[in-house]
Backbone:
């Protein structure tokens, strides 16, 4: 029998090509006669486009065309970009035009496109396109946007409220009226980005012989992109093929269908030549969607023992200039806040504001880091005020494993009641505390303080709805060369999707892992697909793979039994062959079976036999599978500079059954790095006019190798009962509680000065300001003098 | 992010380079290119001509003569970092070089390029000022020598003409066994400093400060010498109190605000880092003096 | 210019960066451009044996230089020791930053045969990675150093 692949630390099949420089990212696709695009983007955050004069640009040698909205297909002229997740609670159902028709609402919005022989020339020409703008007052800051008399982000809207809604259950006002302790916090989380190392890219080519439009796109969701593109270009879906080849990181922003995609496709159709656009990093800072910017004004009611009685408050979310993904993030945030705790009553008033900045859409965590930050800051506050250890107060409030499945009382974004399917939160926290040596920490802290060093510890707990629907498909097909071909609408931007699915299929079909060949991210490979977001692929595609693989194995057994003249139950399938248990144990290889499955020309198939050894399964999860975890962080703060160093990072993570620990550990560690960025570094700054200020990697700081510690990771596996494999998503859990835990640790380190931290990123400058305000430096200076 | 078009020139002698510069309009010198090319890719800078100095042998090298280290302008930062002469005679410079960018940029970045770029947060201009270096510049009109404090004229601005080339930098060495300290604070390893402090000390008998240099970066349009602190220290006996008094002179600074940090924080850092740099300089100086 | 031991002659515009030359003139697309302003390090190659950003060099400057790119590492198609350590430790996810990481570590492990973790991490600050959180890259580098030492002794 073959070795079971599920659960093994299998090395990735993706790696050899990528390590040899033979990866195939969009900009690596060589296309003879390709033309290069550069977009003309508005420098203003809010303006009317009065006139576009392309005369000078067109005179430049090497320029092929300059297109504006007027040159685009009718649907792209008349209609705005499609909204992916509409919701009745959205007052301003507003997306942008692919190319601006009149009003532009954020700096960097697409106004026109230049097509030239090289990107160099296209950039030269873009600078020569003369656009006459009438500038309008811009609204930049989220809180100002909802203040009376604020400038409006869209000139035809009465205000900047894109949506307001309420999420609640229980009698929260009664809980607050009777609770002995109420703690309030005002919290803010910055705006940041996904910042994949590969920027976005689109390459489109049209073959007149087949009328096939092929679009390579650095996307997390090529199947969705194809559907959108078909609508906008008024083409049949069948005449468009979208390929997301190797994609250099996603993290959410590449799940969006962007204006550049249909525009480049339209240019290729119009010119009859391949057209390529590779976003540059400055464009990425200005025009790829971002996330996080939220203000929370929240309160926690607890009894004398620190047991939660209720949570209530208000959330203000910045959606930027448009709402391409609806109100998913504030919705998720509001539904995530109760987390692993029993919260008897809850009310959150949510407002979503429009500003003249690029739209926000999910970035790794998608509203959850903010919600966890809000809840965990409240828990830390209660612990401090009541003199209860932060771990203990959490312990007292956990939903217990025997309460599973646990209904929180809210509806989740999938339209289903928010019911945790499984999880052991007390165990998760105790595991994390154990590997962090939490018990020994206070002694470490005292010893450090005696040397004038300030170290602190912080805890962050979270529960995350993963594996969201609607579905993902997997086709498994046995080939006549004995290989097993797998095709899926799932995509990969580094998650090892091909490896994971190959493991599952090898097990379920009964072949060697090396013989499974997986195609991802190609709409030609499978009819229906969704793509990568919401930590959904292991659940959706993984279970489709096991269902399809199992079905194909049944076909193999059936055909082998018929061919060998034995009963199906006497057939074993392993290592790519079917073997009879009886007689002289004859064997048929997968290759032989694949040929037999094609029948013979002119002859009837055997009764019950289907054509080919092939099955396509579309697993549709009934609801989200809830993963959970605890992060425990130890930091050292240098109060003289405000510098923070993470000394130790411990994670307990429950992603259900684990398909490949090597990959899951990598997801957790990478997620933590993103969380470190959110907590301490990453801040997409804009000025009051909506001008982005941090549009380079020298200004927008993502963590380096010296900023991210190696995490110690413990896996707590409570299988999800909702899917055959018992898996949950693992892509975002590393990020979600990191800011909460890191800031708690900083606050703990600065406990001698009674400093309270409420915002991320927490910069060294802010730490010094807080210490200054707390009068810390008189104390510190005397210590420095002693040491000197 | 592709640069605008330009003509490329690669002289093989200094005279040829000087001729080119005196004749070309809107020309820029290309040294290591680690700042210039990034700015050209952003199209912040669009020269019509680039004059590449990389193939001019006489612009490269490190030599010691009469207590002065002379460094050719095109000497790569990485070669300075691993130079025994620098390590022995200019330990402050060696310490500061570790903070200059990253390995890949130090491999290509040059001392002349960094000085000419004159970023107020950069290390090499600060070190030149700290060591009272002399910058040698040449044009077809002749040669000039400028002290670092005159050369570093303003924000990304140096006191040379468009036809002039920085050819060498001369660092006078301090007495063997002098104390030195270098501290800077950057958000991440290798980033431009928010602020930094470099200190040099020569101590006499009884730990008297005979000679002192205190230089800061990141707190003004150019690196600055904290002369009032030097005055406070000179001739006094070195102790913790004196270091605090010197560092307190940072209160007169009026740093600029930018997207990276505000003035108050920069001033705060300047004080803390001055204290640390002087502390290290005192330890190093005292230790060696007592041997 | 010689790239990975092969001589190339092309007529190019002066403004073409070395990165674009490698990728689009001679088709070596293993070197990636992630920021084009010299911070991310994805485009790192060896220029006459030293690492450099190929986005911060014009191809003209390197007329006559010896350039080494990621494509040269796997001799005969076999992953070299460093590449194999990357796969074994899961030191790459999307793989976009990986070529730059490999070139930076190739130089480090040549110049410092027994680096400690701090040296590896400080060297890697010139290369950004958004996927891995660096831990596995650091492990792979340290492991590769040991394997290389063992190979030298053998």
Residues:
């Amino acid at each position: 029998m073959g070795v079971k692949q599920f659960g093994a630390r299998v090395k990735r099949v993706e790696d050899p090509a990528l390590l040899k420089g033979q990866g195939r990212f969009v900009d690596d696709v060589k296309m003879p006669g390709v033309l290069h695009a550069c977009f003309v983007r508005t420098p203003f955050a809010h303006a009317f486009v009065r006139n576009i004069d392309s005369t000078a640009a067109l005179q430049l040698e090497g320029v092929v065309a300059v297109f504006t909205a007027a040159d685009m297909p009718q649907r792209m002229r008349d209609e705005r970009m499609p909204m992916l997740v509409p919701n009745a609670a959205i007052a301003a159902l507003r997306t942008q035009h692919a190319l601006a028709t009149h009003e532009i609402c954020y700096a960097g919005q697409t106004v026109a496109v230049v097509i030239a022989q090289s990107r160099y020339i296209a950039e030269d020409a873009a600078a020569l396109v003369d656009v006459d703008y009438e500038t309008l007052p811009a609204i930049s800051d989220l809180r100002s946007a909802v203040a009376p008399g604020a400038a409006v982000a869209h000139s035809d809207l009465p205000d900047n409220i894109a949506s307001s809604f309420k999420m609640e259950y229980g009698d929260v006002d009664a809980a607050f009226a009777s609770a002995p302790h109420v703690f309030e916090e005002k919290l803010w989380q910055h705006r940041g980005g996904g910042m994949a190392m590969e920027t976005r890219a689109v390459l489109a080519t049209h073959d007149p012989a087949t009328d096939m439009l092929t679009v390579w796109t650095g996307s997390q969701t090529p199947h969705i992109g194809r559907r959108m593109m078909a609508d906008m270009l008024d083409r049949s879906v069948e005449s468009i093929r979208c390929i997301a080849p190797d994609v250099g990181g996603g993290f959410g922003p590449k799940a969006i269908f962007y204006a550049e995609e249909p525009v480049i496709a339209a240019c290729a159709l119009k010119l009859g030549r391949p057209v390529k656009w590779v976003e540059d990093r400055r464009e990425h800072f200005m025009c790829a969607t971002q996330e996080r910017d939220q203000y929370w004004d929240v309160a926690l009611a607890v009894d004398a023992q620190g047991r939660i009685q209720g949570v209530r408050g208000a959330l203000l979310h910045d959606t930027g200039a448009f709402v391409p993904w609806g109100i998913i993030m504030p919705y998720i945030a509001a539904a995530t806040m109760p987390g692993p705790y029993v919260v008897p009553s809850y009310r959150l008033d949510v407002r979503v504001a429009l500003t003249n900045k690029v739209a926000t859409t999910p970035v790794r965590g998608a509203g959850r880091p903010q919600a966890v930050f809000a809840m965990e800051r409240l828990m830390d506050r209660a612990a401090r005020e009541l003199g209860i250890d932060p771990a203990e107060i959490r312990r007292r409030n956990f939903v217990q494993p025997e309460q599973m499945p646990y209904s929180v009382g809210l509806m989740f974004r999938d339209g289903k009641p928010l019911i945790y399917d499984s999880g052991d939160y007390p165990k998760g926290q105790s595991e994390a505390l154990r590997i962090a040596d939490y018990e020994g920490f206070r002694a470490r802290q005292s010893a450090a303080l005696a040397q004038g060093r300030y170290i602190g510890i912080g805890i962050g707990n979270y529960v995350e709805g993963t594996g969201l629907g609607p579905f993902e498909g997997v086709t498994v097909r046995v080939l006549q060369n004995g290989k097993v071909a797998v095709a899926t609408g799932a995509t990969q931007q580094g998650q090892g999707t091909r490896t994971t699915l190959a493991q599952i299929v090898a097990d379920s079909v009964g072949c060697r892992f090396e013989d499974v060949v997986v195609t991802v991210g190609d709409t030609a490979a499978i009819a229906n697909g969704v793509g990568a977001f919401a930590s959904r692929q292991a659940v959706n595609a993984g279970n489709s793979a096991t269902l399809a693989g199992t079905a194909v194995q049944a076909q193999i057994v059936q055909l082998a039994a018929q061919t060998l003249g034995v009963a199906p139950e006497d057939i074993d399938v392993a290592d790519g062959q079917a073997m009879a248990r009886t007689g002289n144990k004859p064997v048929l290889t997968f290759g032989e079976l694949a040929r037999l499955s094609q029948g013979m020309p002119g002859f009837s198939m055997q009764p019950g036999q289907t054509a080919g050894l092939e099955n396509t399964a579309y697993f549709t999860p009934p609801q989200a599978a809830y993963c959970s975890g605890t992060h425990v962080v130890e930091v050292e703060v240098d109060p003289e500079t405000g510098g923070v160093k993470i000394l130790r990072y411990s994670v307990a993570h429950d992603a259900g059954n684990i398909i490949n620990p090597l990959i899951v550990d990598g997801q957790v560690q990478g997620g933590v790095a993103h969380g470190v960025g959110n907590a301490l570094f990453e801040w997409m700054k804009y000025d009051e006019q909506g001008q982005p200020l941090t549009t380079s990697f020298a200004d927008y700081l993502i963590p380096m190798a010296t900023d991210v510690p190696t995490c110690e990771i413990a896996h707590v596996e409570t299988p999800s009962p909702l899917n055959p494999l018992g898996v949950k998503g693992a892509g975002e859990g590393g990020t979600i509680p990191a800011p909460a835990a890191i800031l708690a640790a900083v606050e703990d380190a600065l406990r001698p000065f009674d400093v309270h931290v409420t915002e991320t990123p927490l910069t060294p400058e802010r730490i010094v300001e807080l210490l200054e305000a707390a009068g810390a430096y008189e104390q510190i200076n005397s210590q420095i003098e002693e040491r000197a | 992010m592709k640069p605008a078009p330009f003509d490329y020139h690669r002289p093989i002698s200094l005279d040829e380079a000087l001729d080119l510069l005196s004749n070309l309009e809107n020309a820029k010198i290309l040294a290591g290119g680690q700042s210039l090319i990034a700015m050209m890719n952003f199209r912040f800078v669009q020269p019509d001509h680039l004059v590449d100095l990389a193939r001019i042998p006489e612009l490269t090298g490190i030599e010691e003569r009469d207590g002065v280290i002379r460094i050719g302008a095109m000497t790569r930062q990485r070669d300075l970092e691993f130079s025994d002469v620098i390590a022995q005679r200019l330990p402050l410079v060696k310490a500061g070089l570790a903070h200059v960018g990253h390995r890949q940029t130090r491999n290509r970045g040059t001392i002349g390029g960094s000085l000419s770029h004159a970023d107020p947060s950069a290390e090499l201009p600060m070190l030149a000022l700290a060591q009272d270096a002399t910058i040698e510049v040449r044009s077809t009109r002749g040669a000039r020598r400028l002290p670092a404090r005159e050369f570093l004229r303003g924000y990304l601005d140096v006191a040379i003409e468009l036809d002039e080339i920085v050819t060498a930098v001369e660092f006078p060495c301090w007495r063997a066994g002098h104390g030195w300290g270098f501290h800077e604070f950057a958000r991440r390893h290798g980033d431009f400093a928010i602020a930094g402090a470099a200190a040099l000390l020569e101590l006499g008998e009884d730990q008297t400060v005979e000679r002192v240099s205190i230089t800061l970066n990141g707190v003004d349009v150019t690196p600055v010498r904290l002369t009032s602190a030097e005055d406070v220290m000179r001739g006094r006996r070195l102790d913790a109190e004196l270091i605090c008094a010197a560092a307190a002179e940072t209160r007169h600074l009026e740093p600029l605000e930018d997207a990276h940090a505000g003035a108050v924080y920069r001033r705060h850092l300047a004080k803390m880092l001055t204290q640390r740099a002087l502390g290290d300089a005192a330890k190093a100086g005292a230790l060696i003096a007592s041997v | 210019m010689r790239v990975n031991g092969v001589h190339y002659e092309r007529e190019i515009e002066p403004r073409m960066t070395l990165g674009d030359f490698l990728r689009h003139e001679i088709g070596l697309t293993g070197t990636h451009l992630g920021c084009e302003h010299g911070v991310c390090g994805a485009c790192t190659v060896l220029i006459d044996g030293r690492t450099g950003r190929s986005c911060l060099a014009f191809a003209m400057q390197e007329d006559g230089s010896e350039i080494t790119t990621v494509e040269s590492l796997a001799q005969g198609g076999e992953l070299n020791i460093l590449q194999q350590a990357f796969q074994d430790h899961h030191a790459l996810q999307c793989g976009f930053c990986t070529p730059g990481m490999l070139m930076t570590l190739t130089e480090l492990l040549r110049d410092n045969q027994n680096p400690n973790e701090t040296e590896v991490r400080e060297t890697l600050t010139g290369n950004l990675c958004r996927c891995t959180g660096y831990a596995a890259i650091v492990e792979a580098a340290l492991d590769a150093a040991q394997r290389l030492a063992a190979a030298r002794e053998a």
The mean pLDDT of chain C is 97. Strands of chain C lie at 2-3, 6-7, 44-47, 50-53, 66-68. Chain C has two domains: 2-72, 75-153.
